[in-house]
Amino acid sequence: MVTGIVLINVERHLLQEVIKDVLALDGVTEVYSVAGEYDLVAMVRVKDNAKLSEIVADKMPHQVKGIVHTKTLITLTAHSDIDLESVFNLK
Predict the structure, then answer these.
(1) Sign of CA dihedral 54, 9, 63, 27
(2) Among candidates 13, 14, 31, which has minimal Cα distance to 22?
(3) What is the CA radius of gyration of the chain?
(4) Could you write out the DSSP letters of every residue in 36-47?
(5) Could you give the domains of the chain?
């Protein structure tokens, strides 16, 4: 499983629409409203880097109106007491 943490800046008047549209993307499991430099954090959990690239480089910038800027962090390892791949049906 590949997990991407996508930091997102949005046009403020489109915030709720962006949340709805990002959450509708296949592979996005959570969207958090946050305080600080970014407006939202999206968690993307997919099988491979190609799928992550499709979401963050194609779908988010071209299919979601209101996104101004993103920054994507790709996890190297995950440490959890639960089997994340099973929880997100990625086995």
Answers:
(1) positive
(2) 31
(3) 13
(4) SS-SEEEEEEES
(5) 2-75 (3.30.70.920)
| CA dist., res. 45 & res. 27, Å (int) | 5
% helix, strand, coil for the chain, step of 5: 35, 35, 35
pLDDT tens digit string along 11-53?
A: 999 999 999 999 999 999 999 999 999 999 999 999 999 999 9
Which of 59, 53, 64, 57 lies closest to 19, judged by CA? 64
Name the pTM for this structure: 0.90
Among the listed residues 6, 15, 13, the one whose alpha carbon sits nearest the alpha carbon of residue 60: 6
